[in-house]
Amino acid sequence: MKFTLSKNSDFWVIITLLAIALVLKIPILANPTWSFSGDEGIVGLMAKHILEGSFPIYFYGQAYWGSFEACIASFFFLIFGINPFALKLAPLLLFLLFIISQYFLVKMLFNKKIAFLSAFLSAIAPSALNMWSSKAGSHIANLFLGTLFFLLCFKYFETRNDKKKFYLFLIGIYTGFSYWTDQMLFYYLIPLSLYLFYRKDFLTVKLFLPRLKTIFLFFIPGFFVGVFPEIYYRLFDNTYTITASAQHFSLRQTILKISVFFKLFTYMTGYLEKQSFFINILTTLYLLIIFASIAFGFYFFRKDFKNLLTFSRNNISKWFIVYLQFIFVPVIFILTPVDPNVELRTRLLLPLYTFLPVILSILFFELKKKYKSISIVILSIILLNLGFEKYNFYREWGLINKNLSIASFYDEKENLIKYLKSINAKGGYASFWLGYEITFRTNEKIIIYPLWGRDKYPKYFNYVMALKDPFYIYHIKEPYLVNLESKLKNDEVKYSKKEIGNYVLFYNLSMKYLQKPLPKNKVTTEFWGDLNPQKVRIN
């Protein structure tokens, strides 16, 4: 059967793509507390506070990440109540909007067939994208906003001259809004700026100066309108300190992040390790196809690369933005002065997904012109690998059964929360990751302040400090667990102890420990403390 897309088929194409994406999300939506984190808890708490009349401009404790996602979550809270399921709908909506924006962007740059296949590959997402697009506070908004940013900018070039100035003003507003929402917009701003620089109407002085004047008169004012929440925060609010874990730039860290990128990239493509012989062969072939597609891209865009490297007066093609953005993602990631932590930095590479599926789709359709059978084999390998990878991912985490039916994820934190409620606990101390999650999941009926970790919401500190009987929760693998128990025994403090799954709860302490607040400044408030007696005062 020959696959064709009619002129009026966009609506049904989008419906089909979204339906596929939603069906594959069911295991996670049915288990909304799976892989829940403190960051998600904070987004949920922000959304709750928005419903109560507050308007946090930034993610609590991080004055560089806007509250856009929390605003979306607050809308779903109105409909479904304040719970993890409703919170998951915010990143899900942004993921679906990304698929739509990707489809129309690629359709504009190439054609409907490449657009459909690209969006389809995004809809059946590798597990890395599937996971991060299911977690609040994961930069999934940037993936959507950045892709839509490209779409709007290329629409600008097609706009009639009499409407270009007004349209440029609107793009300025959108750019400012997107920058306030997530400063990772630079993954899209930098390659687009390079593309504009190489256009003929920007290279010549005669045409460049009028364009520059228009930018200052329309785009810049629009940008300041869109970024107004950040301006207001810097001038009048400044409620929460910045807690970025950025480090000073060093050549050693930069070199280390090159290998980190390739490790993360392999994981984010959906490569499986340590499986059966058949799966190992399949995933190896799949990875070869990924790198073959990237290599083919250099050939496919060879004229644009030549114009780019030789500063040619010839325009680079608009579809070359696909490869420019793809190249700049690792470049910006490697040069960004952040700790190259493999487990926590995958979400910083989410912009890869804007065009990675496009590069694979280009290879498929180019091969299809002369080698139809080979193209079918390649596409089959891609789909089989993504299918096995997703099945393995869901099975490993207990989200589906062998017969593909939805499984119930075992949530040991639920038992911990139930026990805290049974002893009428009001608040206490735990790690950052656990503390804000329980605070959100109990709708602030139990408030936990991070004894170590990041102080995201300072108001909780005074509340917990005022409690007569705060508790302590530790994971069995935390080194602080031994420190606390030794201190309690040395100080002859009576206490109750309860082990719940992998957590240990200490409560009913006969002597209260008055904790010191975490050190704060405008650069960082991160403090990984211990319970050394010299750092604790006894009341």
UniProtKB/TrEMBL annotation:
One BP term from GO: lipopolysaccharide biosynthetic process
Pfam families linked to this entry: PMT_2 (PF13231)
Keyword line: Cell membrane, Glycosyltransferase, Membrane, Transferase, Transmembrane, Transmembrane helix
Subcellular location: Cell membrane
InterPro entries in the record: LipidA_mod_glycosyltrf_83, RgtA/B/C-like
UniProt keyword annotation of Acyltransferase present: no
Residue spans crossing the bilayer: 12-36, 57-79, 85-105, 139-157, 166-190, 215-233, 254-272, 278-300, 320-338, 350-367
Membrane topology qualifier: Multi-pass membrane protein
ATP-binding listed as a keyword: no
Annotated GO MF terms: pentosyltransferase activity
Annotated Glycosyltransferase RgtA/B/C/D-like domain residues: 72-220
UniProt-recorded name of the protein: Glycosyltransferase RgtA/B/C/D-like domain-containing protein
Gene Ontology cellular component terms for the protein in this record: plasma membrane
